[in-house]
Structure formats: structure tokens, C-alpha cells
Amino acid sequence: MNSSTFREKILDLRPHYSDQYRSMIDAISNKLEKTGKGNIAQFGAYYQTYMYACIIGMRLGTPKYLDANEKSWEFALMQKWKPTQIRDYVIMMIFNRSKDYGYDWMDLEDANEETISAFLRTFEREMEGYANRGLEYINNLWVNQRVRFESPTIFVEILQELENV
After folding, report:
1. Residue 68 half-sphere exposure, CB side, CA atoms within 13 Å?
2. Which end of the chain has fewer CB atoms within 10 angstroms, the N or the C?
3. What is the pLDDT of residues 102-133, one digit of tens each?
4. 11, 17, 132, 5: which is closest to 78 by C-alpha?
């Protein structure tokens, strides 16, 4: 499979997040809005919140996988996520850990369809795990330190804090 087709398959993924974070995501994300909701600074579109959560989860280092029977929600197709630079950064972060979950991503270009399909399921599961770990962290801040979400740089502040962890 060529790299272009492989990329298209990745961008056709629709990762999930746990239902327990839905109300928090609704509060800190915007959907087709230009401004925030009151005093709450918003991360941006829903998929941007998901990308930021994935980065936070990766920084924390331990994924929180969805349980098979856990209620979850789908995000938009990855090909629609913007800014594409952040989307591509998240994809590369997951790729760079592929040996941790059983794949050498450099070998995937020559892999058969069965191997690619298995990889994509695992890749999506890893992304979901890190995003849900990040959402758990953000949700804890949301519940216990909501005033912090008045800052328009809350995401940067969180990443700076995690640099010292």
C-alpha cells in the first residue's frame, strides 16, 4: 500500500471519547461559534479539544482505554480536523509510539490489508486512550479549578505544568 492510500485510511478514522466527559467538552469547546460562553475560555472546535486532550494524555504518558461496554461518542473524521498541523502532529506522536503497541510503522508501507486494518484499529485505540487520559485530566481541572478556564491560554498553561511532572 502506498503512503498516500495509507494516509487516507488514517484520516478516515473517527476516534471516540468517553460519555463521562461530554458535558465538560460541550462547555469548553465551541461548535460553529466565533466567541466563548461567558467567562469560559474555549479550546476551539470539538475536535481541537480532542487533539489537545490527546497531547495532554501523551504528556501524562499513560493511556486510559475505553471499556468495551462504555458509552462513547465519535468525533468527526480526522480529515476534517483543523488546524491540520496539530492533527498531523498528533498522528506522528501516536506513530512514534507504534513499537510500544506492536508495530514498526516504517514496515507498514509493505504490509498487507489485514495487517493495515489491524494496525488502524490499534492506532485508533491508542489515540482514544491518550485522548481519554487527557480528557480525564482536563475534567479534573474543570471540576476542581474551574476558574482557571477563564484564561485564554489554559491549554498552554496545562502543557507547561506537565513539563515539570
Report:
1. 0
2. C
3. 998 778 878 899 999 999 999 999 999 999 99
4. 11
